[in-house]
Amino acid sequence: MKTEILNAIQDEYPDDFAWCYGCGRLNTEGNHFRTGWNGDETVTFNQPSEEYTAIPGFVYGGAIASLIDCHGTGSCSLALHRKNGFEPGSGEVPPRFVTASLNVNYLKPTPQGALLKAVGRVEEIHPKKWKVFVELFADETLCATGEVVGVVMPASFMK
Amino acid sequence: MKTEILNAIQDEYPDDFAWCYGCGRLNTEGNHFRTGWNGDETVTFNQPSEEYTAIPGFVYGGAIASLIDCHGTGSCSLALHRKNGFEPGSGEVPPRFVTASLNVNYLKPTPQGALLKAVGRVEEIHPKKWKVFVELFADETLCATGEVVGVVMPASFMK
C-alpha cells in the first residue's frame, strides 16, 4: 500500500497559513498531516505518537477528530483547487479553508500502533463551502466516520 | 471568576483509565483538562499552549474539539456519578465514559491567549448513554458549540 503523499495540498499553503498544529508544515510541534488525491478520493495517513492515548492501547479521540478535521479542510482545498484547474505541485496557491463544523462518529476503539488512513469524498454545497465525508481506517478496519464542512477562510482570520 | 476546579471527576478515575491525552492526570504529555460541577452545569477551563495554532493568532480547531470531547465524557461521568449518589471528592470510583459521537460548530475564530471555558448541560438518553450540550467561551465570547454522546466504557476497551 502506498502510504506517502507526494503532492500534499499543505505543501502549497502560503507560509502565513502553514502553522496549523494538525497540518501546518511550519509548526515544529505539530502533526504535519499531508492530504492528497487518490483518484477522486482524498487521503491522509498518520501514525499517532504514543502520548495520544485514550485508554491504554487505544488512540485518543481528540487526535482522531484532529485528523478528520485537517483532512477535511485539506480536502476542501484540494477540491476547489482542482475545480479552478490546478493540482498540488503546480505551484499555484490554493484556497485556504477553515472548519465550520466537524462531526465524528466513533464506531470502535482505534488501536495504537496502527497506521491510520483518512479517506474523503468531497461535495460542493456552495462555491465557498464544501462538505467532506470521511472514513477513518486503522490498517484495514473502519474505526470512525466523520463529516467536515469547510469554508474559504474569512477575513476574520486575518490578524 | 473562579477558574480552578477543586473536585474534578478526572481526579477519581482509576489509574488504569487516567492516561487520556486530553484529561488523564497520569499522561505527562497531555492537557490535564479538569471537569467539575458548577451548580447543575459542568465546567472545564483551559488555556491552550502556543503550539495549538490554527491560523496565527487563533486556536487550533482540533484543540477545541479535544476540549469539548473530554469535557463531554467528564460531564457524563459526573452526571451518572451524581445519579448514583456521589460527588467527586467522595472517594467513590465514578463510571468511565468514552465518546460515541462528537459534533462541533465553530461559530467564530477562537483567539489565542484567552482563557477557554467549556460549559455543559447533561441529559440522560439511556442509563449507559448520556448527551452533553457544550458551549465554548473564550473569555466571555461564545466561539463554538458542541454535542457529545458518551457511553459507559464497553469491554472492547479492555486490552
From TrEMBL, chains A, B:
Protein name per its UniProtKB record: Acyl-coenzyme A thioesterase THEM4
UniProt record similarity statement: Belongs to the THEM4/THEM5 thioesterase family.
MF GO annotations: hydrolase activity
Organism, as annotated: Sporosarcina siberiensis
Keyword Cell membrane in record: yes
Record lineage: Bacteria, Bacillati, Bacillota, Bacilli, Bacillales
Membrane topology recorded in Swiss-Prot or TrEMBL: Peripheral membrane protein
Entry-linked Pfam families: 4HBT
InterPro entries, alphabetized: HotDog_dom_sf, THEM4/THEM5_acyl-CoA_thioest, Thioestr_dom
SUPFAM superfamilies hit by this protein: Thioesterase/thiol ester dehydrase-isomerase
